[in-house]
Amino acid sequence: MKCGSLPAKADPEEQCAFYCDILKPLMDQAKEGTLTLLFMDASHFVMGCDFLGYIYGTTRRFIKTYSGRKRYNVLGALNYVSKKVLTVANESYITASEVCELMKKVAIEYFGKPIFIILDNAKYQKCTIVTELAKQLSVHLVFIPPYSPNLNFIERLWKHVKNKLRTKYYDVFEDFQNKIDSIITDTDKNDITVVNRLIGEKVQLFNKLRIDCYETVHELKVEKKAA
User: Fold this and answer.
1) Per CATH, which fold does 17-226 belong to?
2) What is the pLDDT at residue 54?
């Protein structure tokens, strides 16, 4: 039996209500062209930590990797329809300042239509400086329910970027950064077919799925071994 994961504090019914009452109508209107819908979130790429790739064989293999902990932080805003991504990046931390900078880019890029941004409840995204700027720019911030990364489609994009990074060893940080930037730039160009498959109309919801606690899963494993 293969199990999936669900954040322990997530509320499946609240997620379903958010999707049906808020997210799905926004998705439909975005496809009709009456508004611009974006998904915003940050991803943190640590060079040499998580991008070793995979080699299958009977002999254990070792792959050279970078010994430092240099990190490239990217805050992105993904256009649900076009799949174009606007970004703000740095090597330190993503804060409210970066969120404000990205919102200004979004307001300029998509001027002329109502703008809605789906994002999570991180403090630096929900603070006064961000919400006040959003009002000034006429940008509508739509916060997903707590513990609901499945409702923020840009999470799928970050997975796509990380998968493409696992094809080469990088020993120069600038090369690592440039590769990430090039993958993101390609989301609405060379990779548009792949990204459209990842980010479409389907949303993972849990209200109709069986959710087991750790103890139940553990008991099932014991029963399977005994059989």
Assistant:
1) Nucleotidyltransferase; domain 5 (3.30.420)
2) 55
